[in-house]
Amino acid sequence: MLLTTATVLHTDYEVLGIVMGNKVRAQHVGKDIMAALKNLVGGEVKEYSELLKKVRQSAMDEMIEEAKKLGANGIIGIRFSSAQIASGMAEIIAYGTAVKI
């Protein structure tokens, strides 16, 4: 499957529609404590980096599955959005346009 942030391909393709994948995840309290301590001294908060990486991939996998159900072999214009739902809880949305090349 072709995955790209480009909004236009220089080839013929059929637009099948918008596809999305979203995930909401909460961090473990123990990891929140470690992140708070790292905030005092500075540096990368690896606990959150790893969490967001996993959630982003999970949302992307869901978007790809939605595209496959439409018969797509590509997704163009891929974007990501995130929002804090509650304290310690984040939503990641992956979206794009499913196409058949």
CATH architecture annotation name? 2-Layer Sandwich
Determine the strand fraction and express it as a percent band: 35-45%
> What's the helical proportion of residues?
25-40%
- Let me know the number of strands: 4
Keywords:
about 100 residues, alpha+beta, 2 helices
Architecture overview:
With about 100 residues, the protein is α+β, with helices and mostly antiparallel strands. It has a single domain (about 1-100), classed as Hypothetical protein apc22750. Chain B (Translation Initiation Factor IF3, 2-Layer Sandwich). Helix content is about 35%, strand content about 40%. A four-stranded mixed sheet has the order 1-3-4-2. Strand 3 and strand 4 (about 90-100) form a beta hairpin.
What's a concise summary of this model?
This protein is an alpha+beta fold. 37% of the residues lie in helices and 40% in strands.
